[in-house]
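Write out this protein's structure.
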Amino acid sequence: METEILHQLIILLTLSATMVLFIWNGLRYDLIALVAFLVILLTGVISLEQAFEGFSHPVVIIVASMFVLGQAVVNSGVVEVITRKIVFLKKHMVFQILTLSALVTIASAFINNLGALAIMVPIAVHMARKSNASPALYLLPLAFASHLGGFLTLIGTPRNIIVSAFRESATGEQFMMFDFIYVGGALAIAGLIFLSLVAWRFMPRNSDTNAGLFNISNYITEVRISENSPLLGKYTSHLTENKELHISIISLIRDNKKMYNLSGYETLQIDDTLLIEGDPESLTELVETKKLELSGKKSQESGISPAEEQISLEAIVSPYSNLIGKTWSEIPLKEKFGVNLLAIARKGKPIREKISETYFKVGDVLIFYGLRQSLSTTISQTGCYPLAERNVYFGRKLSIPLTLTIFLATILAASFSVAPLEVIFLTGAVIMLVLNLIPIKQAYRAIEWPVLISLGAMITIGLALEQSGGAETVASALKAFSQYAFVSPALIVGIVLVISVLMSNFINSIASAVLMSPIAIALAVSLSANPDGLLMAVAIGASCGFITPTAHESNTMVMEPGGYSTKDYIKIGLPMEIIIIVISIPLILYFWPLF
């Protein structure tokens, strides 16, 4: 008994510390999950034989397979074929946002939410330009729409798969593919109505729609003084003498020495490198009129004919880009594909290093330069997302009929439970690989490894919470509260739902699903209730990360290019969550009654 109490104390303290670390957000969430995993392993809360069951859990296989299947669908070009049909919609904001958001919602019900959002972003930007509106009006509503797809299907989000796995451990049966749509369908419709009629009206507006692709801060770029430049022998102040150009000099680099806080009287010499800041138009005019060389234009592809078009393209560093934590000089792809990095924009701490020596962060907006196909390949390889309108497909080729056939066959097989889900989805992914509908290297890149690592670690922690009796302890506290006369099934569902929502916003959505599922099951057992309603509340709550920029990858992706602040997320995220909570409770009790 003493050992059991000690183990419960350890797991609850570990979880409390884990939650604090998640809220602090000073460490990566997968690292936090691994540290918590090691604590419960080294303290003996869970045995060595059981410790790694989480990493081999069927949920991990299903989620990894879904990443591959989803990327194959993106590669096929089917989503882009559909979205290209809506580019010429009439310029009516409500109709535009409703159409775009509905497409994102439907796509994210079957493929990676972030991928569905990334495909739609260029279309939204194009519509913004046609409507002479700020892209900020579109981006956050679209990011939130990518959450709504998680309410519709079992594979809409890894959180649903986690909850379904806990249901199987408790009842012997998983949720079916479309069990979530009974409640989730109404939530998706309500969310789309709110986003298209209300949400965009509260977004920041930028009347200067021509000052760059998005409502972002100025770009930082490097230029070299060439022998033909009229600035040669002039003072540094000559760069900023044209008041119509919004240019500022950050530093002068000469003989590998950096000079900051320039007086304006430094004489410019040949091969001097200047780190300058400005909007894209001002930078372009300065480079052309002063005959400066962009330091980033160094790599060249072999065999390029003069007739081949080289263009610039803006892209954003996604949360799972392999550029994060690296500098451009450390990326070998620029040598292979001849793509150059010309400039970078970042909110917050100003960039003071050379472009090639700047460490990339999530949300950085980059300007690449190169051949169209090379840009497409490089952006795909590095895990960035293009933000300008694209004329080439994100993948290598169109393969819509075959890809859709395999994908739909996989969904149908899962819907009718012809085999265990992990077998079905792994088979579908392998078939895509065998038929080369997605290259195996790209398949490995498509898998979001931090998600899988944190998933495996958190599943183990969830099992430890269950086996140590910690879940029962928490459930007993909730049961004691439920004995009061004023406590109803609606309030019980509401409490589980609200706790899950709070955890998904301030801690981690995967942690919310993993930790709340055993508590929901234990609570249902103690109340002699059907666990399905409480598990459905957990699934919905775990997908409600709307009020913080870091609650979901889609939120993080649009923050920098949309020029959003945390207040913008709260302004539309909080009403969104209230709507979902209010609608969810009666629907859960109707379709998944507790008693």
